[in-house]
Amino acid sequence: MREIRFALKKTIPIFFTYLFLGIAFGILMNSAGYGVLLSVCSALFIYAGSMQLAMVPMMASGASLLTLALMAFFINARHIFYGIGFVDKFRRMGWRYPYMVMALTDETYSILCSVEYDPGLDEDQAAFFIALLNQLYWVFGCFLGACAGKFLQFDMRGIDFSATALFLVVVVNQWRQYRSKLPFLTAGTCALGFYLLLGKDYFLIPTLLSCLAALLLLRRPIEQKEGSLHD
Amino acid sequence: MTEALYPVAAIAIIALVTWALRAFPFLLFQNRPLPATMKYLGKALPPAIMTVLVVYCLRSTDFAQYPFGLPELVSCALVVILQLTRKNMYVSIIAGTLCYMILIRV
After folding, report:
1. Of B8, B18, B43, the CB nearest to A72
2. Domain ranges of chain A
3. What pLDDT does A189 receive?
4. I need a labelling partner for A44 at 20 to 30 A (CA). Which of A102, A193, B2, B23 fits?
């Protein structure tokens, strides 16, 4: 099927990121004494990289469920913003709609908001396979790390930079696509400002909220420049 | 809570919170037509979010101590230059990541 092949091509960069991060998670779970089934269930149901990596030491130290819930809220609160651009698109996707919502990770989001579909392709089907393949990579990585972690002790330090590189590539492509550079400049200013002000652990949510507010205020100049915003 | 149930409950609660966050904008506008403001945000937010994500990925870089964030800066510059000139995301990502993995080892 052309849609699957297209999705495979678009998700290759995620394959490596998810495989190695998944293995790292599986190894961590294994060494904390949690079995393969728990690792795979985490990958299937939580499906959030940094959250899963953060939860292992917390679970090992017996953190309360309330603490874990709060932690999950703060680490993953950025996901609230991801759906905003996809409400209309996902709603049209029928039985795939709930899955698309649940599978909207950083990496899937970055692919979906930058992908240019080949002409003649069933876009909804291609988007679905992009989301599905990404999760398969993640589940496979977590499974592999959990059951074969002992044999997979390569020194893969730094492989997580592939996610950074992917996001950077998306930003470069968007920079060329968007005529108004205000969204980038706003985000860069807010991010650096709050990073310097609040430090690396607390800057994310204030940054995203202030971006939201600033973009609402800048609506007129951005729409004037962009013109073709209403597709 | 029993020993065996705790990790199951922990994973369940984290999954629920994560799902709720991802579903929030969809639940908010479930069956209503999307207001024009949201359509605008749907277009204007992605480049802002992606820019923030890049900063977020680099947040643990220590610029005050050796190697002063140089591996990150050099690798990021390489990714941007390759993407601007070659326009091939695979080349940009693989070269940038390899560059980073080598630089943090020297």
Report:
1. B18
2. 2-177, 178-231
3. 96
4. B2
